[in-house]
Amino acid sequence: MVGYAFMGAAHSQAWRTAGRVFDLPLRPDMRALCGRNREAAEQAAERLGWSSVETDWKQLLTRDDIDLVDICTPGDSHAEIAVAALEAGKHVLCEKPLANTVSEAEAMVAAAESAAARGVHSMVGFNYRRVPALALARALVAEGRLGTIRHVRAAYLQDWIVDPEFPLVWRLQKDRAGSGALGDIGAHVVDLARYLVGEVESVAAQVATFWPGREVDDAVESAVRFADGAVGTISATRFATGHKNAFVWEINGSKGSLAFDLERLNELQWSEGTGGFRRVLVTQPDHPFMELWWPPGHVIGWEHTFVHEILHLLTAIADDADVAPHGATLEDGYRAAEVCDAMLRSSESGERVSVEYR
Amino acid sequence: MVGYAFMGAAHSQAWRTAGRVFDLPLRPDMRALCGRNREAAEQAAERLGWSSVETDWKQLLTRDDIDLVDICTPGDSHAEIAVAALEAGKHVLCEKPLANTVSEAEAMVAAAESAAARGVHSMVGFNYRRVPALALARALVAEGRLGTIRHVRAAYLQDWIVDPEFPLVWRLQKDRAGSGALGDIGAHVVDLARYLVGEVESVAAQVATFWPGREVDDAVESAVRFADGAVGTISATRFATGHKNAFVWEINGSKGSLAFDLERLNELQWSEGTGGFRRVLVTQPDHPFMELWWPPGHVIGWEHTFVHEILHLLTAIADDADVAPHGATLEDGYRAAEVCDAMLRSSESGERVSVEYR
Amino acid sequence: MVGYAFMGAAHSQAWRTAGRVFDLPLRPDMRALCGRNREAAEQAAERLGWSSVETDWKQLLTRDDIDLVDICTPGDSHAEIAVAALEAGKHVLCEKPLANTVSEAEAMVAAAESAAARGVHSMVGFNYRRVPALALARALVAEGRLGTIRHVRAAYLQDWIVDPEFPLVWRLQKDRAGSGALGDIGAHVVDLARYLVGEVESVAAQVATFWPGREVDDAVESAVRFADGAVGTISATRFATGHKNAFVWEINGSKGSLAFDLERLNELQWSEGTGGFRRVLVTQPDHPFMELWWPPGHVIGWEHTFVHEILHLLTAIADDADVAPHGATLEDGYRAAEVCDAMLRSSESGERVSVEYR
Amino acid sequence: MVGYAFMGAAHSQAWRTAGRVFDLPLRPDMRALCGRNREAAEQAAERLGWSSVETDWKQLLTRDDIDLVDICTPGDSHAEIAVAALEAGKHVLCEKPLANTVSEAEAMVAAAESAAARGVHSMVGFNYRRVPALALARALVAEGRLGTIRHVRAAYLQDWIVDPEFPLVWRLQKDRAGSGALGDIGAHVVDLARYLVGEVESVAAQVATFWPGREVDDAVESAVRFADGAVGTISATRFATGHKNAFVWEINGSKGSLAFDLERLNELQWSEGTGGFRRVLVTQPDHPFMELWWPPGHVIGWEHTFVHEILHLLTAIADDADVAPHGATLEDGYRAAEVCDAMLRSSESGERVSVEYR
Fold it and tell me: Which of B91, B331, D202, D296 could form a disulfide linkage to A244, CB 3.0–4.6 angstroms apart?
C-alpha cells in the first residue's frame, strides 16, 4: 500500500477484515506499507498491520512477495505509480479520482488494458458502488423495477471548508489534488450516475470558487443529459453548511423511484409506483453483502464499503475476470474524469458540452 | 373572480376565510363569479359563496360594486383580462404564471405601473411567498442569519402524468397553458429563488418532453447562477414518481442553511452554523401569520397560503402601498417568465443564457 | 354554539366551510353564538360569522330556529348543557372530554340514549377520528391488513407548560378542566386506541404532577392491555420539551404496522409485512374525505378535521342514523372517561385496574 | 473467548480492530477461542483470528497466557464461567444479560467484588453505553443540559419472530435464554435508562407471550417511575412488524430533550429548549470516540460499539480502575436483571413493584 493517511487507514482496516468475514478466494497478506518518511511509515505500519516498510514505491515493484499495489496517495502520483505497477505485473487498486488530468487517465487505461491481456487486474476505488444499498439500487434498476429512467438528481454535500480559516491542505492545492470538490466528490457522483443509469451524454455546468485566491473549485452545479434520454442535475460542494458527508441522490423512473443519503448508508428509499417512498433497511441476509455481517438491523458503516471492494477485486483476480460491471475499471475512472473535465469546459465556455470518450 | 375550477375554489375559500381570522383593513364582499357557462357558473357561485354571476368577464369591469378582479383562468387569457381590469380601475389579483408569453407579461407590467400611479394595485398569485415557513426563511436570509448565500438547490416534483393514459387536460395544451412543468411549477421555483436569494444572473438548462407528441415540456433541469455569486440548480418535473407536490429546496450560506418541503409546509429545517439541521415547526405565535390561527403545533394547510395572500393584498390596497417586496408584483411575474424563457432558449441553443430584463 | 375561544373559533371555521366543500345533506345556518359577556360575544359572533348572540345558553334551547347545539365550553359545564339540550330536542355536538367526572358522563349517555329514541342525535368531538390518515388507518385495521394486532404504543406530547411561569389558565384549574393532560389529551389517545384497536381491558398507570401546588396532572404514563390480547403503552404529557402537538402512535400487527404523527397529519407510515415503513401521503382522491379538497399533495391542516366531523354529524342527522362507529357517541365519550378514570385509580392504588363499563 | 456465534464474531472483530484505531494501554493478543465442537471451533478460530482452541472453558482458566475471559455464550452458562474465571484471577467481559436468574447475578456480583479487591476487573457487555451518540447523550444529561428529567420513553423493537414458522432457536428456549424479549433486549433498555437517567424506583408491567406453547416472553410493556421523579415507559418486543433493530428512546427534561434510534446510531436528536429537534451527526472529532475513526460524516456501524467497549475495559484494567460509571459493572448487570425481574413479578401480580436491590 502506498500512502497511509485517512484513506490508507480505511484500506488497511478493510484488508485486515475482509478475510475474517467473507470466504475470500485469495488470502491477503499485508506485506508492505510505503511512505517517504521512514519513521512515520514504520509507526503507521505497526499501527495498521503491515509487516514491512518501503520509502520508495518503486521498491514495491521489485519485490516478488508483492502481487498487488494499493495506491492511496494524492492524485498527482496515481498515474506514474499505477502504470509502473501494471507494467511490473502487479494488480492495482487505485483510489479515486483516477488521475489529475484526462491525459494521465488515458495513459493509465492503456496500461490497464495491456496488463489485462496478461492476467493483471486493476480497479479504481469508487467504493460507493459497493455500499449494499447502492448495489441493491443498481440491481433494481437493471431488473427494470424502475421502468424507463426519467431523472437523476444527485449532490455530494460537505461543509468542511466553510470556515475561511481552514488550512490549505493538499486537497485544496491544485498541483496535488488536480481539482477541488469536482474531482474529489463530484467524481463519485459521476461514477455512481454512470453505474446506476448509464452514460452521460452532455453537461451544462457552473463551477465556482468562493474564496479569492483558492486554487481549486469549491463547488460545481450542473444540468446533465443521459444517453437514454433521462435528464437531471449533478452537484458537488464543500460549502453546504450543515452537511458533513451527504451524498444524496434520487432516481425517478416510469415505474418507481429510489433515493439515498450516504449519511444513512444502510437505508434505501424506494417508491414502487406512485404510492410513496418506503424505507428499506438494507441489512437483510438477502441484501448484497449482508449475509455474512450481522443480524438484520445491525447497521454497518462507511469503512465496510472497502471490505466489499476488496472482496470484489480479489474475486476478479482469482477468477481472472474483469471487475466490471460492478467494480470500477480504470476505463470507468477515465470516463468519470472525462465527464468532470467536460463540466469544467462547459463552465468556462458557457456552452453545453457533449461527453465524448477517446 | 374569473374562473372557478381548482384555483377558483381555493381562492374562494380564502376570500371567505380571511376576514374571519385576521383583522382586515378592508372587508371583502364576494360579489360576482364569472364563467362562460351560466348554469355551471351559478352552481359554482352558490357552492363557493359568490352572490352573482357573469358570463363575460368584461361585464365585471363595468360594475361599480366591483373593486377587485381575481383572475383564476388558464394563462392564455390573463393578459387581456388583467390589462383591461387595471385600465378600468380595478385592483387585480392574477394567478401565476403571469402570462403565456414574455411579451404579454411586459404589456401587463406596463398596465400595472400605469394603474399604480392611479392608486390601483395588482399582485401575482405566487402564494408560496406567504407560506409561514417561507416567510420566515425570507426573514432569516434578509437578517443575514445565513451569511453569504452560496447555494440554492430547488426542485418542484410531481408525478401526476407519469401514467401514459393521462388525458390531455388544459394544463397539457400549449395554447392554453403556454408551457408545461416549466411555467406551471418551475415558475414557482424561480419566483421563490428570486424572493429568497435575489436575481438570477444566468441559466443553463435541459428541457425534456418524454411523451412523443405531447405539446408542452414535462420537465426542466438547470444550473443557475445568481447575481450575488451563489450557484445552484432549479428543477421542475411532472415525472418524479412517488412525489405528489414536493416543492423541495435548500439554501446554503456561510453561516447556516435552510431546507423546506411543501408536502410538510409547516416545517422549516434550519442549520445554524455547521451543527446539523433543526426542525422548526412554524406554528408559534411569533412566526409569520400564525398568531391568529391555532395553538402551537396545530398545523395549517396549503389553502391557508391564499388567505395570507389576500391579507397582504388588501393591506397594500388600504395603505395605497406596493405589494412588494413580500407580495409578487406583476414585474415579479414578468421576471419569473423571463427566467423561464431563458431556460427554454438555453435548452434549445445549448448555451448558457444571461437573464436580462427589459 | 356555546363558547367562542380557541375551540369555538375552530368549530366556526368548520361550520362556515363544510357546505362550501362537501355536498351536505343539511345546510348549516349559523344562528347564534352564546357567551356570558354580551359585548365580547357580539364581537366574536361578528368575527366568526354567527348571526345573533345569547348570553345564557338556556335561551338557545327555547329558540325554534335552533336545531343543534355545539358545546365548546370548559368541561365543567358540558353535562348540564348537553343534557338540557338533548331534552329540549336539540342535536348536540359536545367537545371532549365529554365531562369532568364519570358520573356526569353517565348522565349524559342516558340523556343521549333517550334522545336518540326521539331522533335527536349527539356526537363527542373526538375530531382526530376524522383525520384522513386516521380514517384510512381504521379502514386498514378493519380490513385485516395488519393481521392480529399485537401492540399499540401511543403518546400525546406537548410542552406548553414546561415554563414554570406559565399562567394558571382554565385548563390548569381542577374545577374547570376536571383533569390535566389526562383528560385533555390523554382522552384523545384513549379514544383513538379504542377506535383503531378495540376496548381497553386493563391499565397500569403512573400519573405525575411536576409542579408543587398545581391542581391537575401534568402527565400520565401507562401500560395497557386490550381485550383482544394486544399490549402497549399510552402516554400523555405537557412536559415533552420540543414537541408542540405530537400525537404519535404506532400499531404493530402480525401482517404489518402503521405509524402516525399529528404534526404531520397528512402522512401515514405503513409497513406491509416486515419490509419497512412507507410514507403514504393521504391526499389522493380515493383517500377518506380527500376527493373534494385539493389535488394530490396539497396538504390540509388541523382545522379540517372539524369540517369532516360536521359532515359526518349532519349526515347522521339527515339519515336519522347513529354517528357510530366512525363518529364518537356520548357512550364513546363516557368510555374514554372511564378508561382515564381507571388510570387515575391505578396510579393511586398501585394496582392494575380492569376497565369495566357501567 | 468462550462462544463464537454471532456475538463471538462481533467481539472478535472488535478485539482485532481496537488496537489498530486507538492507542490501547494494553495490547490484546487473541490467544484462544473455546467451543465444545473442536472442528467447528478450529474453523471459527482460523476465521476470526484466534491462535488456539479449547473445548472446555475450564482449560482457559488454567492457562498462564490468558489474562481475560470474554464470555459470549447463552445466558445459562454465564454465572458458572464468570465466577470461576474471576476466582482464577482472570479479568472478565461478560455478554448481557448478566445471568438467567437474579440469584445467579447476585453470586456473580459477589465474585466480582471479591476479585476487584485483587485488581481483577470485570464488565458486562452493555455495549450501547459506548455508542458515541449515547455517550454524548449521557454527557449532556450529566452536565445538566436537559435540566430536570421528566420523562423517559424507550422501546426496543424487533420483528424477527413475527413469522409463526420461525424455528425454536436458543434465544426462544427458556432454559438457555432465561427469558425472551425482556432479558435479551429489554435488559438493554433498562441498562440505558439507568445509565442516562438513574435508578428505576418502580415498575408496572404487562408481559405477553403471543404464540401458545412458546416458552419465553415475546414482549413487555411497562410504566416506570425513576428515583428522581421522572416517569415513562419501557417496552421491548420481537413482534414490532417493520422494525429490525430499532432501539428508540426519548428523554424530556425541563431544559431540553434527546431522542435516538439504534438503526441510525450515528445520529442524536437534540431539542435545546422548546424550539424543535436538531439532528446531530455524532461523527465530529470532539464527539466521544470519534477523533480516531474517520472524517466527519463518515459513519460507523453497530460493531464499533464493541471496539469502544474493549478500549474502555482495557483502560480500566491498565489503570486498575473501576469500569463504572461509563462501563457496566456486574452490579449494573445485576440491577438490570432485578428491574427485569420486577417487571415479570408486576405482570404476574397486577401490582406496581418497587425495585429493591439486595
Answer: D296
Instruction: Kindly write down the DSSP assignment for every residue of D53-80, as one continuous string.
Output: EESSHHHHHH-TT--EEEE-S-GGGHHH
Report residue C110 as a C-alpha cell.
Answer: 342516558
* Chain C residues with CB-CB distance to B27 below 8 A: none
pLDDT at residue number C82: 98
What is the rounded end-to-end Cα distance, in angstroms, of chain A?
A: 30
pLDDT higher than threshold 90 for residue C166: no
Give the model confidence (pLDDT) of B106-135 as tens digits: 999 999 999 999 999 999 999 999 999 999
DSSP state letters, B114-126? HHHHTT--EEE--
pLDDT at D161: 87
Specify the residue for cell string 415513562.
Answer: D232
D268 contacts in chain B (CB < 8 Å): none
Task: Average the pLDDT over each of A156-170, B245-259, C32-46, D276-290 and give the range with the smallest value.
Answer: A156-170
Encode pLDDT of D268-324 as tens digits. 999 999 999 999 999 999 999 999 999 999 999 999 999 999 999 999 999 999 999
D224:C221 CB<8 A = yes
Spatial CB neighbours of A213, under 8 Å, sequence gap ≥ 6? none
Rounded to the nearest angstrom, the minimum Cα separation between D178 and chain A is: 21
- For residues C89 and A94, give the distance between their C-alpha atoms in angstroms, rounded to a whole number: 85
Least Cα separation, residue C140 to chain D (angstroms): 15
**Mean pLDDT of all residues belonging to chain D:** 96
- The Cα–Cα gap between B214 and A341 comes to 35
**Helix or strand holding residue D207 (H, E):** strand D200-208
Q: Per the CB < 8 Å rule, is C275 touching D221? A: no
Query: Nearest by CB to D277, which of C242, C255, C350?
Result: C242
The helix/strand/coil state of C328 is strand
Q: Which of D160, D185, D294, D305 to mutate to test the interface with A (most CBs of A within 10 A)?
A: D294
Cα within 13 Å of Cα(D212), Cβ side: 0
Whole-angstrom Cα distance, residue B228 to residue B147? 12
Q: Has residue C164 got a pLDDT over 80?
A: no
- Residue-wise pLDDT for D66-115, tens only, equals 999 999 999 999 999 999 999 999 999 999 999 999 999 999 999 999 99
Cβ-based neighbours of B292, under 8 Å, separated by 6 or more: B21, B22
Instruction: Please report the residues numbered 273 through 312 in chain A whose beta carbons come closer than 8 angstroms to any beta carbon of chain C.
Output: 275-281
Quick one: pLDDT at residue B156? 98
Q: Which of D161, D303, D306 to mutate to test the interface with A (most CBs of A within 10 A)?
A: D303
Q: The pTM is what?
A: 0.97
3 state SS for chain A: CECCCHHHHHHHHHHHHHHHHCCCCCCCCCCEEECCCHHHHHHHHHHHCCCEEECCHHHHHHCCCCCEEEECCCHHHHHHHHHHHHHCCCEEEECCCCCCCHHHHHHHHHHHHHHHHCCCCEEECCHHHHCHHHHHHHHHHHCCCCCCEEEEEEEEECCCCCCCCCCCCHHHCHHHHCCCHHHHHHHHHHHHHHHHHCCEEEEEEEEECCCCCCCCCCEEEEEEEECCCCEEEEEEECCCCCCCCEEEEEEEECCEEEEEEHHHCCEEEEEECCCCCEEEECCCCCCCCCCCCCCCCCCCCCCHHHHHHHHHHHHHHHHCCCCCCCCECHHHHHHHHHHHHHHHHHHHHCECEECCCC
A239 touches chain B (CB under 8 A): yes
Q: Which chains have 3+ CB pairs within 8 A of C? A: A, B, D
Chain A, nearest residue to B274 by Cα: A242
Among C187, C151, C235, C159, which residue's Cα sits nearest to residue C78? C187
Query: Residues in chain A with pLDDT < 70?
Result: none
